[in-house]
Structure formats: structure tokens, C-alpha cells
Design brief:
342 residues, alpha+beta, SH3 type barrels, Alpha-Beta Plaits, 3 domains, three-stranded antiparallel beta sheet, 15% strand
Length: 342
């Protein structure tokens, strides 16, 4: 009878607490402009309600004529449920708080959209570690021996999963240092070029121009030379188109023809202006280079193709020869000629 009364009273107390929260805290949160407090209150309302009931059940169990050993298991189970409930609430609150801080982040803020995954991972580890600790306390387990064993097991796991840990720490450094971000066009070791589609804690996904998504371990990226084509103050990129003109060509005409090939080409920016540079005296001709700026690195190959076609046609129409590699061979003496003269 007494245990039943405690159970009913705990349910009534939980309902009263829920009513007080709804009439006070929830009502005040609705008047604020931010939605962070609404998320926090929504995350803790149910845990508060369930915690009151579970504590009431634990109190009621103590009033029942059951063996002490059985009571120990009941208390441990109820307290474990409380720990799990609050761990879930703590995780939701932590994620909401980090996302709110990242949205309001300034230039020098620690929590920013690019560093958000790192703090989310730290929050997960902290919540899981705290939940495990309080679960041990709920079952009255001495943690001294477990901590000593965990140290030995941790060393063994570290050796067994060194590659995974290397990728994990490289991912943290990539997110914190931000050599690139999602959407950037990068080149790894002058070999792999593509757009970053996802930055994970273990690997980075890159979509190549062949529409092939490649997953690169973060440890590999951490040891590679990275060229970020969309880095810098803007996303413009300079494109170079080299061509040779035969010796004896009018260099002023070559410049004029090459600059005229840029007119009407899409994605070529007006500023900075296109330029033509006379680079060097080559082995077969005069080396010129057309420099243009594009607003999207993704279409670099298309722009180069268009400019190459236009330059070839324009040179032919203007009578400018594009030389090819050739060698003149002078024969000083034909084989056997000296023998015939003798």
C-alpha cells in the first residue's frame, strides 16, 4: 500500500513539475527571439518528467519486502535509465548550443562552421564518457581497477588502430586549419583534381570532373601538397593558353589576334583584363601565352578548349604560322663517298 502510494505520488509530482515548466519556463521562452532556449527546454522537459517518476519507483522499491541483492539490481537499473535519459538530453542540448554558436560566429570565434564537427565530436565523447561514469556509479562499481585496465587496453587499441587514429587526428587538423572547405576545387600532389563534397573525421570525398567520387583518407591528405583553386580573397582563377608563332611573325599582330579570341567567351571576367605575354624564344618559334581569368574553376577545361580552337582558326585566317618541331639534317659526306674517290 505504501509503495503504491509513492508510485502514484511520483506520477502526480511529475505532472505538477511538467505543468509548472509549461506555465513558466516554456511561456517565457516563447517570448524570446532566439529558438535556442526553446530547443533546450524541449530537450529537458521529458527527462525531468521521467526522472521524477523513476526516483519515485526507486523509493517505492525500497518499501517492498524484497531481498537486498534484488533491490540492488532494481536501483541500478532505474538509475541507469535516468543516466541514459539525461545523456540523450545533454547530447541534444550540446549540439543545439554548438550550432547556435557557429551561426553567430565572428571572424575570431573558436566555434565556427568549419570547426563545428570537431566540437561535436568532443561533445559526443564527453557525453558518452560521463554517461559511462555515472552508470558505473549507479551499479556501485569501483572504477580504480577498470581505469587501470582501460589504460592497458587503450595502448593495445592504439597500436591496432594506428591508421584509423592517424586519419582521425588528421581530420581534426584539417577541420581546424581549414586548408579547404566543402565546395572548393583542390589539387592533391598535382594529380587528383576535383570538388570537395564532404569533409569527414576519417576521410574527405572529392568529386572529379569525370563525375567520379573519390574517398581519400585524411592521413594521406595531411601529408600531401594541396592546391586550393578557390582559395584566396575570391574564386577567380587565371587560365593560361600557350601557343608558338613562327620566327619572323609580327608580334604586334600576334598579340592583337590572341586578344580578339577572348571576345564572347563565357565565364571570362572583364576584370582583371585578358593579357598576352611574350614568354621566350623557343626552339621552333616564339612562345606566347594568353592569360584570362574565369569566375568558376569548374569550367577551366571548357574555356581552354574554346580558346585553343579560336586561336588556331584566327592564326590561320591572319596568316600566322604555328610552327611544329622540326630539325634540318646536313649530310657532310655520303657513306662510301670517300672510298669511291680513292
Amino acid at each position: 500500500m505504501r509503495a503504491g502510494t509513492i508510485v502514484v505520488g511520483s506520477i502526480a509530482a511529475a505532472a505538477i513539475v511538467e505543468l509548472i515548466l509549461r506555465l513558466t519556463v516554456v511561456a517565457l521562452a516563447r517570448r524570446t527571439k532566439t529558438d535556442l532556449d526553446d530547443i533546450v527546454i524541449a530537450a529537458i522537459r521529458r527527462p525531468v518528467f521521467l526522472t521524477v517518476i523513476l526516483f519515485g519507483l526507486e523509493w517505492a522499491a525500497a518499501e517492498l519486502p524484497i531481498p537486498r541483492r534484488m533491490l540492488h539490481y532494481v536501483d541500478g537499473l532505474l538509475e541507469t535509465l535516468i543516466v541514459l535519459i539525461w545523456a540523450g538530453a545533454a547530447f541534444r542540448v550540446a549540439i543545439a548550443l554548438l550550432e547556435a554558436l557557429s551561426r553567430r560566429a565572428g571572424e575570431n570565434s573558436v566555434v565556427q562552421p568549419r570547426t563545428l564537427p570537431v566540437f561535436e565530436m568532443v561533445a559526443k565523447i564527453a557525453v558518452v564518457g560521463g554517461a559511462a561514469y555515472f552508470t558505473f556509479l549507479a551499479w556501485r562499481i569501483d572504477l580504480t581497477a577498470w581505469l587501470a585496465s582501460a589504460g592497458i587496453i587503450g595502448i593495445a587499441i592504439g597500436f591496432a588502430a594506428k591508421d584509423t587514429l592517424a586519419n582521425l587526428f588528421s581530420g581534426i587538423f584539417i577541420v581546424a586549419d581549414a586548408p579547404y572547405k566543402v565546395g572548393d576545387f583542390i589539387v592533391l600532389d598535382a594529380d587528383l583534381r576535383g570538388q570537395v563534397t564532404k569533409i569527414g573525421m576519417r576521410s574527405t570525398r572529392i568529386l572529379t570532373r569525370d563525375d567520379v567520387e573519390i574517398t581519400v583518407p585524411n592521413a594521406v591528405i595531411g601529408n600531401s601538397k594541396i592546391v586550393n583553386e578557390t582559395g584566396g580573397p575570391n574564386t577567380k582563377q587565371r587560365v593560361r593558353v600557350a601557343v608558338d608563332a613562327a620566327y619572323g611573325s609580327d608580334i604586334d599582330l600576334v598579340r592583337k589576334v590572341m586578344l580578339g579570341c577572348v571576345d564572347g567567351v563565357g565565364h571570362v571576367t572583364a576584370e582583371p583584363k585578358p593579357q598576352v605575354r611574350f614568354r621566350e624564344f623557343g626552339g621552333s618559334g616564339l612562345r606566347f601565352e594568353l592569360l584570362v581569368w574565369i569566375d568558376d574553376p569548374a569550367i577551366r577545361g571548357t574555356v581552354i578548349d574554346i580558346l585553343n580552337c579560336r586561336i588556331y582558326k584566327a592564326f590561320g585566317a591572319a596568316g600566322i604560322e604555328i610552327p611544329y618541331s622540326k630539325h634540318d639534317v646536313y649530310i657532310k659526306q655520303m657513306p662510301g663517298a670517300a672510298h669511291d674517290e680513292a
